[in-house]
Design goal:
With 425 residues, the protein is α+β, with helices and mostly antiparallel strands. 30% of the residues lie in helices and 21% in strands. The chain contains 11 helices and 17 strands. The N terminus and C terminus are likely disordered.
Amino acid sequence: MRRSILPGTEIAGDAASPGDRAGSDVTRDLPVPTARKEVLASWQRAIDTGADAGKHAPRHLPSGEVHERRHGNALGDSADRMQRVFAETGDDPELLMGVFDADGVLLWRGGTSRWLRVADHLELVEGSRWDEESTATTAVGLVMSDHRSIRVVGQEHFNHALHALYCAAAPIHDPRTGDLTGIVSLAGPVDGLQPSSTAFAASMAALGEHEIAGAHARSLAELRKHAGARLTGIRGPALLVDRDGWVADSHGCTAPAAVAAPMEDTHQFVPGIGTCVAQPVGCGWLLRRVGPANPVVAELDLRGEPTLTVAGDGDDWQTVLTRRHAQILLLLSEASESGLTSARLSRLIFGDSGHVVTVRAEMSRLRRAVGALLTSRPYRLAPGVTLHVSENGSPAESGEAWLTTPGGVPERPDTAHAGKHRRLA
């Protein structure tokens, strides 16, 4: 069985492997040297899924997917800045930094050549997955679960191969949406534990969030510089937004912070402005009003296949929703103006906060289906939107039953009936 892999380090003690305790009641007496509830809960989940503490084998993604994840992550070039700061300010030669995405996939790393070799031996390389399913109890996995800074030391790790290490990790949130976009982790030898490692990780995470906000502001300023003049010739309200719907400039209206991501020549309703049509301009979109700015009334019909009908913006339309999207709309309607965070939606739908990535993906698809009826930070119905629910009288088919439906495997994103609009005559 593999023990320490670090030159000159020894394991002070050894936690018994769950596999070595055959027949014992590990659910009552977990073989982990800690009383920390979050670590114990992670160990229990690992045991429940049949994880082998003597087998360390992170899953690896192909290089093409790693490149796509880097390109699509909100951190982007901010990770380079984090790596430079780590290299310039870190005075501990036995410290490794990794930047992971919200799924626990390592996208960037930095450290001395010796520690990069150690990382290679542990398969801590770009494209490796460090979620609980892949590597059981680690600081990265706990941040994914709890969304807060944490440190895991030595034998608190479930896998024996990691017992010679300590690891501190902190979440990186997208300051625009509040969603988890990454995790920064610092690792070193357990006998060289740095008391300030968790604070250092949290500081690096704060730097990442600051860089995301700065890059976003620069991008909107660049869009205003090159396309802002297009607003001046438009009569009536109009918006200049980036590809994701963030507002760079406006004319003749009080602009929201963001709208649903536009699509070319597609009508979408913007609360307070009216029905708008999108035209590409530079690296963004020009949204100009083409319909009246009346209050919007939406009806969610649960008497059969979930159907959403929207009226009041001068261009009525109807779309069929997935059951999951109908459930989310009901939850947002119940939450009223206070809205729901992705973590809260995860708890309401799945029973815990461990599915925020799935929730964000579902919300992205739902917003593409219903446009600016929804807004974010937190997720909620947009101002001026009223949602009515039509349902059968039986309890099994009531809105309350939809709200309490146990979470399961989400519907496939390419479900045939999801998000197809039909104009009403």
